[in-house]
Design brief:
With 80 residues, this protein is mainly alpha-helical. Helices cover 62% and strands 0% of the residues. The chain has one domain. The longest helix is centred in the middle third of the chain and has 23 residues.
Length: 80
C-alpha cells in the first residue's frame, strides 16, 4: 500500500489495504493538527483526543482482519 501511495496510485493502495490508507490519512490529520497547535501556541482538538477514538480504532482493526479473510460473498475481493 505504501509503495502504491509513493507512486501516487491511490486505486492500487485501496486495493492492497483500504484500512491502512484510512489510518495514514488520520495520522496525517493528527500531525497537521499538532503542528498547527504548536504554531499558534494553543491546544487544537482533533480526532485522537476524543474518548471513543482508541476503542473504535481497535474494533475497526479487529473487524478488518477478520472480514478480509472470509471466504464467501464479496470478501475475497479484499484479499490481495
Amino acid at each position: 500500500m505504501i509503495y502504491a501511495l509513493l507512486h501516487l496510485d491511490v486505486a492500487s493502495a485501496v486495493r492492497y489495504n483500504a484500512l491502512s490508507l484510512v489510518a495514514v490519512l488520520l495520522l496525517l490529520w493528527a500531525f497537521a493538527a499538532w503542528t498547527y497547535s504548536r504554531f499558534v501556541g494553543r491546544r487544537v482538538l482533533s480526532w485522537q483526543h476524543l474518548r471513543w477514538s482508541a476503542p473504535a480504532t481497535l474494533a475497526l482493526t479487529l473487524v478488518w482482519f477478520m472480514v478480509r479473510n472470509l471466504g464467501f460473498g464479496p470478501f475475497p475481493a479484499l484479499h490481495v
